[in-house]
Write a structure and sequence with these properties.
With 275 residues, the chain is mostly helical. Helix content is 62%, strand content 0%. The structure holds iron/sulfur cluster (3 copies). One iron/sulfur cluster (SF4) binds next to helix 14.
C-alpha cells in the first residue's frame, strides 16, 4: 500500500491522459486519439516515475519522448501543423481536431491544472534549447517580454491574410509554414541563448504561445510551494532556476510566477527540502 502511494502521481497522470484518450477516441470516432494521448500519458508517467526514482535526467527523457514524437511524427510525417499558425488555421475552419485539441489540452485549459508543464516537459523547441550551455541564466532578465505579443499578432495576421486572400491548397502552405516556423524558432532561440547567455531567452521574450500559457498558469493547481519553517533563505533555489522565479514567495503574484515550467531544479537543489 505504501509503495502504491509513492507512485500515486504517475498513476493519476496515466489515468487522466487515458481518460482524455478514450473520450476523444469514442466521441471523435478516431483511433488516432487513443494512440496519441495514451503515448503522451505513458511518456509523462514514465518521467514522473523516473523522477521519484531520483533519475537525474527524468525530465529530459519526457522532453525527448514527447517533443520528438510531436515534431517528427505528427509534424513531419503526419503533416499536422502544431504551431500556433496551425491552431489559428483549424480554429478558423471551425474544426476541433489536431492543433485545436492540442492547444486546448496542453496550452489553454491544461495549464489550469499543470501550469506550464508543457514548457518543462514536452515542447520540441525547448527540447533543443535545453541542450545549450546556459542552463541557468548568466545575465539579469531583460524588459523585452512585450515582443511575444508582436509574434502572437504576426502569427494571427499571417493565417488571417491567407483566409482573406482565399488562398488555395492551404494544407500545403500550413505544412511548409510548420517547417519554416520551426527553423526560424530554432535559429532565433539558439542565437538569443548565446547572446543573452540564457537557454530559455526565447521562452522569456519571443514565444507567442506564452500569451496563452501565462494567464492560464496563474491559476495553476500544481505549483512549487515553500515551507517557510524549513527555509533558511540561502537563495540556492533562485540561483538554479532557469526562469528567474522567486519560488520562496508562495503568493501567486511572486516574481515571475507565471514563468515556472515545473522543472523541479529548485526542489532538487534545496538543501533543507523546503520546496
Ligand atoms: S515558452 Fe514557448 S518555446 Fe518555450 S517551452 Fe514554452 S512553448 Fe516552448
Ligand atoms: S533553496 Fe531551500 S532553503 Fe534555500 S532559499 Fe530556497 S527554499 Fe529556502
Ligand atoms: S527551478 Fe523551480 S521555480 Fe524555477 S522553473 Fe523550475 S520548478 Fe519553477
Amino acid at each position: 500500500m505504501g509503495s502504491l502511494r509513492k507512485y500515486l502521481h504517475p498513476i493519476i497522470m496515466l489515468i487522466v491522459f487515458e481518460s482524455v484518450a478514450v473520450t476523444l477516441w469514442l466521441t471523435k470516432n478516431n483511433l488516432f486519439y487513443l494512440f496519441n494521448f495514451s503515448y503522451i500519458g505513458l511518456a509523462v508517467s514514465l518521467g514522473i516515475f523516473l523522477y521519484i526514482k531520483q533519475y537525474r535526467h527524468a525530465r529530459r527523457v519526457v522532453q525527448l519522448l514527447v517533443g520528438l514524437y510531436m515534431l517528427i511524427y505528427l509534424g513531419l510525417i503526419c503533416n499536422e501543423n502544431m504551431q500556433i499558425e496551425g491552431f489559428w488555421y483549424y480554429l478558423f475552419n471551425g474544426v476541433f481536431e489536431a492543433a485545436t485539441i492540442h492547444y486546448a489540452v496542453a496550452k489553454i485549459f491544461g495549464p489550469l491544472i499543470f501550469g506550464r508543464g508543457w514548457c518543462g516537459y514536452a515542447c520540441w523547441t525547448a527540447m533543443v534549447l535545453d541542450f545549450l550551455p546556459y542552463k541557468v541564466p548568466e545575465q539579469p532578465r531583460k524588459r523585452i517580454g512585450w515582443i511575444r505579443y508582436i509574434t502572437f499578432a504576426l502569427s494571427l495576421a499571417f493565417v488571417s491574410a491567407l483566409f482573406l486572400a482565399r488562398v488555395r491548397d492551404m494544407e500545403r502552405i500550413m505544412f511548409w509554414s510548420f517547417i519554416a516556423g520551426n527553423i526560424l524558432y530554432y535559429i532565433t532561440g539558439i542565437a538569443l541563448a548565446f547572446a543573452f547567455k540564457d537557454n530559455r531567452a526565447f521562452c522569456k521574450y519571443i514565444c507567442p504561445i506564452t500569451v496563452f500559457l501565462k494567464p492560464m498558469s496563474y491559476f495553476s493547481l500544481l505549483r512549487v510551494k515553500c515551507d517557510k519553517d524549513k527555509c533558511i533563505g540561502c537563495g540556492k533555489c533562485r540561483r538554479v532556476c532557469p526562469m528567474n522565479v522567486d519560488v520562496t514567495d508562495n503568493s501567486r503574484k511572486r516574481e515571475n510566477a507565471t514563468e515556472c515550467i515545473l522543472c523541479m531544479e529548485c526542489v532538487r537543489n534545496c538543501p533543507k527540502k523546503a520546496l
